[in-house]
């Protein structure tokens, strides 16, 4: 049996595009002699559809698309994922389903059993878990078909009563197929491989796994679809962050043979390489799927805006990136020079708009209210908000999308100005710690100097007052980020972090800042997710809650 795995980039709710992609995949696979072509979880509607699933018309459009797809399945079978109405009136309205289609008809329906309800996942809100499991007979083989989490056997969850493969294995299948929507995080590929390999070894069956690729607002899907032999060894690994269709022949005597007509087998990448590729894909898909082409950002001469500018130029083309230099009376000459050198190196567009007169006008208007009070954060934030007003005006006038340049360290401790440097359409590096931003800059410069070296080596500063340094308010970033990783990503308490050797006063200060800044994070743009625990939909904290630390 020749199996094709179709790793494609879908668009939530774009039924015309998704259906055309799936049909094109079926035709290509048929032309290449495949007996079965496998698409990803909920590919028909895109993942995650969230509350679109509450509209009856949305579910009806899924069914219409499935009928169009089924009509293409003559002399080839396919597996697609889609939401379907649940026939049990006592359960949720929908199932997360997989259709096995052959001879133009849906021959089998498999419903997902283990519905993830943690971090970014919220499937139990919409779907009813299945309790019925049957293999599918096709071309002399018996297929155990499961959906994503149904093979994520190491996850402990009280909702998980029955593991589908424990039932399906009793029906003596010859092969496992798993269709998935597994989002990217820089450490997730190794975890995914380990869990799937364990399943292949545990059930002593070859395993074909197909994943989404592409970004859906903040969620990035990295592809990396996999094939394992019955001993849990990787037989093949499809490319990361790219669409592809790969072909495999399952034979009793020789096991699995495979061919890649257009690509080479993927290689393991470092965390920073994966983050870089993920962010490029995240930017591209946010713009393409939103219908925009051009980005704008404020370019300060600092490392954060420099990295975002370089990523945007790579993702969208430098001709589609407008970098705006917005110097104040506190901006240093070297910062302006660094920003100008970056623009030259990238070849992007640029404008310079000085804000000194604008901020002076604000301060003059507020003089009766401020009444000669000392310069403090109020005047600092006027500068940041003045820049935001100018950038948003250019967005409105020319149709740009504003890129937010705040990093995860700043977002964590509230080191940013609401309606100032925290505004934007998408937060590009809001899930990248400051220490990782430096690594990204060095990676971007791996072949030639793009980001000026001075931008990388100079002490970070917001330049909102004379001789300001980030470390005036914060610990050194290597210490700060190490604490934030433990608190935000590993959910460690202050006591647990202090036991690791961190100064107790510093730990308490950092954790207090994180908790106090929750109201700011609620008002920031969506953040491209590259870590196992990002701010946003995967981390839901009360704004006014009191957590003693």
Strand coverage percent:
15-25%
Oligomer: single chain
Helix count, DSSP H or I runs of 4 or more residues: 16
Give the strand order, joined by hyphens, for the main sheet: 5-4-3-2-1-14-15
Average pLDDT, rounded to a whole number, is: 92
Note the gap between the termini.
Answer: 59 Å
Give a count of the beta strands, DSSP E runs of length 2 or more: 20
* Morphology: elongated
Give helix % range: 25-40%
Integer-rounded radius of gyration = 26 Å
Unreliable residue runs? none
Q: For the report, how would you describe the main beta sheet?
A: 7 strands, mixed
Structural class: alpha/beta
Can you tell me about this structure?
- With 549 residues, the protein is α/β, with parallel strands linked by helices.
- The strands form four sheets. The chain has a seven-stranded mixed sheet, covered by helices on one side. The protein has a six-stranded mixed sheet with strand order 6-7-8-9-12-13.
- The chain contains 16 helices and 20 strands.
Summarize the model shown.
With 549 residues, the protein is an alpha/beta fold.
Which key phrases capture this entry?
single chain, 549 residues, alpha/beta, 6-stranded mixed β-sheet, 16 helices, 20 strands
Topology, pairings included?
Layout: E1 2-7, H1 15-31, E2 36-38, H2 56-71, E3 77-85, E4 94-102, E5 105-111, E6 136-138, E7 141-147, H3 164-168, E8 175-179, H4 188-203, E9 207-210, E10 213-216, E11 219-222, E12 226-228, E13 234-237, E14 244-251, E15 255-259, H5 271-290, E16 295-298, H6 303-316, E17 321-325, H7 333-346, E18 349-352, H8 356-370, H9 377-398, E19 401-404, H10 408-413, E20 426-427, H11 434-444, H12 453-457, H13 477-489, H14 494-499, H15 504-516, H16 518-521
Parallel strand pairs: 1-2, 2-3, 7-8, 8-9, 16-17, 16-19, 17-18, 19-20
Antiparallel strand pairs: 1-14, 3-4, 4-5, 6-7, 9-12, 10-11, 12-13, 14-15
Helix pairs in contact: 1-2, 5-6, 5-11, 6-11, 8-9
């Amino acid at each position: 049996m020749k199996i094709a795995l179709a790793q494609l980039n879908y668009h939530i709710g774009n039924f015309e595009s998704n259906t055309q992609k799936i049909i094109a995949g079926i035709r290509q696979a048929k032309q290449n002699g495949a007996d079965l072509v496998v698409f990803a979880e909920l590919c028909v509607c895109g993942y995650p559809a969230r509350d679109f699933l509450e509209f009856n018309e949305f579910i009806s459009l899924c069914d219409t698309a499935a009928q169009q797809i089924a009509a293409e399945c003559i002399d080839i079978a396919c597996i697609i994922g889609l939401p379907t109405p649940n026939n049990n009136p006592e359960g949720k309205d929908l199932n997360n389903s997989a259709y096995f289609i052959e001879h133009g008809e849906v021959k089998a329906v498999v419903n997902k059993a283990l519905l993830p309800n943690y971090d970014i996942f919220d499937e139990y809100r919409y779907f009813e878990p299945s309790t019925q499991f049957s293999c599918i007979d096709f071309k002399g083989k018996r297929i155990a078909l499961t959906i994503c989490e149904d093979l994520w056997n190491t996850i402990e969850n009280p909702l998980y009563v029955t593991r589908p493969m424990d039932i399906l294995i009793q029906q003596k299948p010859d092969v496992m197929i798993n269709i998935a929507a597994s989002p990217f995080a820089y450490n997730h590929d190794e975890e995914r491989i380990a869990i799937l390999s364990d399943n292949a070894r545990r059930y002593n069956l070859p395993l074909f796994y197909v994943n989404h690729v592409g970004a859906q607002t903040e969620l990035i899907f990295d592809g990396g679809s996999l094939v394992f032999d019955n001993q849990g060894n990787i037989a093949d690994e499809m490319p990361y962050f790219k669409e592809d269709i790969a072909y495999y022949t399952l034979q009793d005597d020789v096991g699995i043979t495979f061919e890649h007509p257009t690509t080479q087998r993927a290689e393991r990448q470092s965390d920073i390489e994966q983050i870089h590729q993920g962010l490029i894909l995240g930017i591209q898909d946010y713009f393409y799927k939103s219908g925009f082409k051009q980005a704008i950002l404020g370019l300060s001469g600092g490392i954060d805006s420099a990295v975002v500018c370089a990523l945007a130029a790579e993702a969208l083309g430098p001709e589609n990136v407008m970098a705006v230099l917005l110097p104040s009376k506190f901006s240093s000459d070297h910062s302006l020079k660094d920003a100008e050198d970056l623009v030259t190196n990238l070849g992007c567009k640029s404008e310079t708009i000085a804000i000194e007169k604008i901020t002076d006008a604000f301060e003059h208007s507020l003089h009766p209210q401020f009444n000669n009070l000392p310069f403090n954060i109020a005047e600092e934030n006027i500068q940041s908000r003045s820049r935001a007003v100018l950038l948003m005006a250019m967005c409105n006038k020319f149709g740009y999308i504003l890129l937010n340049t705040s990093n995860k360290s700043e977002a964590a401790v509230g080191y940013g100005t609401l309606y100032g440097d925290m505004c934007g359409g998408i937060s590009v590096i809001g899930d990248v710690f400051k220490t990782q931003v430096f690594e990204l800059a060095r990676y971007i410069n791996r072949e030639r100097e793009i980001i000026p070296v001075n931008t990388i080596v100079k002490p970070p500063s917001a330049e909102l007052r004379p001789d300001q340094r980030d470390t005036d308010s914060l610990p050194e970033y290597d210490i700060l980020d190490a604490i934030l990783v433990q608190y935000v990503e590993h959910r460690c308490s202050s006591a647990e972090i202090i036991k690791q050797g961190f100064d107790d006063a510093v730990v308490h200060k950092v954790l207090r800042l994180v908790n106090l800044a929750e109201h700011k994070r609620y008002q920031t743009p969506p953040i491209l997710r590259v870590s196992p625990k990002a701010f946003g939909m995967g981390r839901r904290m009360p704004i006014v809650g009191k957590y003693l630390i």
